[in-house]
Predict the 3D structure of the following.
Amino acid sequence: MKTGDLDGLVNRITMASNSSTSIARKARTKAEADFATWLMMAKLGSFDDLPANAQKVLTGYRSRLDRMSETDSKAIAVRETYQAYFSEMGGTGEAPEPEPRKPTTEDNVVRFQKPPPPKPKPTVTAARGARPPGAGPHRPVPALLIFAAMVALIAVYKFLTR
């Protein structure tokens, strides 16, 4: 066997391995999505509308729930579907074990965080620099004090203009 022949063989094996990995990834994603869809449709009362293979997978899933946890039963159902899809998509041999996924939240519930409290907008007088920052809250001026100041100004004006 020549060196060129060996390189070609290695390249074909590598390409076949990459192709198999790609098929496995697509089959795994499709199996997980389809199983979730089938399960939701069954919960909504459309079990009889599902295709025969989906009904078979869900029946097996439900029968295993008596013997094992929901998570384990779901994993087996997805694995069965994955193997079938791997063969349908042109994968050869036994479907490879998928890479373990990062664990998600245990209860599959999305938790929203509260937004931070809004920052107070600067007032017009604070923007003009009338009060230094951190001077404390602005106390309102009583109406009676304003009225007394106006009366005093008018009296001073009349006194000065005579």
